Amino acid sequence: MSGTPPELPIVVLDALMPKAQRLVVNRRGSMVWEVESHRGRYAVKVGYPIEATADWPAQPWTALAPAREGAVLYRLGLDDFAYGEWELGTWNFQPWHEGPDLYELWKPCREPDSRTEPHTGAALGCVEALAELHGKGWAHGDVQPAHFIIGPDRTHLIDLALARGGHVPEGYDFPFRGCLVHYEAPEIARSVLATGEAEPTQEADVYALGASLLISATGRRAVEYPDDASRPEQRRAVASGKRRPVKVDGELGELVHAMLSPAPGDRPTIYEVGKALS
Ligand SMILES: Nc1ncnc2c1ncn2[C@@H]1O[C@H](COP(=O)(O)OP(=O)(O)OP(=O)(O)O)[C@@H](O)[C@H]1O
Ligand SMILES: [Mg+2]
């Protein structure tokens, strides 16, 4: 995937016949494009395998992630998406959602000496998006601020490639090996350290949303470790369950604290979080 400028696979070009296209990200075995077509605007995700680097082992599963996400979208009963295979891996397209993500939206709260408090309405939008998924019996597995797109009418929770809760075709499935460690619940971190794998759960999603709200509002991680800590060092800090005394101001603060409880059973469900906020 290096050398030549990235291109959309021909199958995707045939399906969408883009009028305009823009590469949004290309990293760690995944490209995302924004595509304008006669059918509407779409996010196109294209996966390819990545080779090992100094700090990242080879990850053939990145090639499968878009098809796995497509299979999840199908199980969730969404329409207006498609997925399939290309030479190096798999792809999907799904509706493009306009709007900032949670981290961008709360940037003013993170300015030094900021008096802007995180807006409860935005937090509630994220809670509702996650509650909708949990209500269908699924866990997301990769809840993070960038995955909440705050649109004019509703908030969308994107990137369902790691979600668990229903059947995924064996050929597109792969084990869950944890997520971004800043958002990883202690029990997930412990399992990944011990076995290399873990089971995404709704309780871990609630923790991840608590950590997402905290980071977006304050710029601080839920657990303290040096910026340059290796991934296993970060996981060991998270697994220890020792929270750092960072609080969100205002009414959100107590709720975030409960969501970050070390024991999964002590965390509120997403519906309880929603009730407390509304
Ligand atoms: N449906 C969508 N609508 C709008 N933007 C999207 C959509 N899907 C993806 N994006 C944009 O592309 C970025 C990456 O998408 P996504 O998280 O799904 O891919 P990824 O390869 O799993 O990335 P990462 O490894 O960072 O999680 C998102 O943070 C968002 O900015
Ligand atoms: Mg993602």
UniProtKB/TrEMBL annotation:
Q: Could you list the residue ranges forming a coiled coil in this record? A: none
Record-linked InterPro entries: Kinase-like_dom_sf (IPR011009), Prot_kinase_dom (IPR000719)
Residue span, Protein kinase domain: 1-278
- Do you know which SUPFAM superfamilies this protein is assigned to? Protein kinase-like (PK-like)
Which is an annotated Pfam family here? Answer: Pkinase
GO MF term list: ATP binding; protein kinase activity
What name does this protein carry? Protein kinase domain-containing protein
Q: Which organism is it from?
A: Streptomyces naganishii JCM 4654
